[in-house]
Amino acid sequence: MKKLLMFSLFFFVNTVLFSQTVTFKYSEDRFEALYKTVSKHYKKDELKQLLEKSEVKEIDPATDKNLRFILNPRSVKQQASKHEDYIAKLVNDETIRKGVGFFAKYYAAFEQVYKNTKVHPADIIAILNWESKLGEMTGDQQIIKIFIGQYFFAEDYNAMLIKEGAYEKEGAMTREQADKRIERLKKNALGNLTALLTQAKLRNFDPATVKGSWAGAIGYPQFMPASMCFAADGNNDGKIDLFTMEDAIASVANYLKENGYHSKGREHSFKRYNPDRIYAKGVKMYGDMARKAGVEPGKCPPSGAACPIDL
């Protein structure tokens, strides 16, 4: 009989009148698969101790809500609908004006990045605008819990959603479609969890303290941990911090460059950043509008106090 490891997850069920504590169990096989990916950096007992820490294994109401949204059979359509709404909110005259001012403020960083990557500053700003409103919104979700929830407990959440009638609601995908999607989510969660734990060891930080979006994305460019291989040091201080704007700018440029920006076109690289069709459409619209508003390499807006040249 295979050994079972036990985790307690705390969440609110479908009522505000009471809360319920549920204990999920996961097999040693899934733990072993995770351990195999990080064994160069963690001893087995060390990894178990990390996953058994109360701040890691206890799923708070906010995390539970996010996991239910991610794993819900209507999630894909709901996310697409939200992106459609985001175009009006994120691509308009006001956000373009902010983008032009942002370009002026970080003009030196954009010039250096353009020299190194030839990625247009308007497209970098478009990504940062969509992802975090130019650094204003980065999220407060404890991301390790999101990846643990998807990797270890996706089937448990799906079973709860089935009982709650989620598949009977309008817009829900079929059980077969959902099962295939759950397998993809588990695979991606394993990759992101591996990357997070590995980076924690290499850079000496506690992975349980890292916060980001509801989906587990980090910093101003909202990189998933598995995308950290594209992160870059934009201010040449010898380290990479996605909550430092110069690093965020350089990282977005590097991601786009390494994902077909020049060889397959800018729209292709936008879809690599986020495969949603509306996302790529909105980012392209913003980039086009920002160009028309004066965001161009070597041309600093006259109002930019940070610009090293006087136009």
How many β-strands, per DSSP? Answer: 4
Low-confidence stretches: 1-21
Order of helices and strands: EEHHHHHHHHEHHEHHH
Strand content: 5-15%
Helix amount, in percent? 55-70%
- In the sheet with the most strands, the strands line up as 1-2
Largest sheet: 2 strands, antiparallel
Separation of termini?
A: 75 Å
Give a structural overview:
Strand 1 (4-11) and strand 2 (20-27) form a beta hairpin. The chain has two domains: 4-77 and 140-212, no CATH class; 91-138 and 217-292, Orthogonal Bundle (Lysozyme), CATH 1.10.530. The longest helix has 29 residues, at 175-203. It has helices at residues 28-38, 44-52, 54-57, 61-71, 75-90, 93-105, 107-117, 121-132, 143-163, 175-203, 245-258, 266-273, 277-292, and strands at 4-11, 20-27, 141-142, 211-212. The strands form two sheets. A two-stranded antiparallel ribbon has the order 1-2. The chain has a two-stranded antiparallel ribbon with strand order 3-4. The termini are far apart. It has 311 residues and is mostly helical. Helix 8 (121-132) packs across helix 11 (245-258), helix 8 packs across helix 13 (277-292) and helix 11 crosses helix 12 (266-273). The chain is built from 13 helices and four strands.
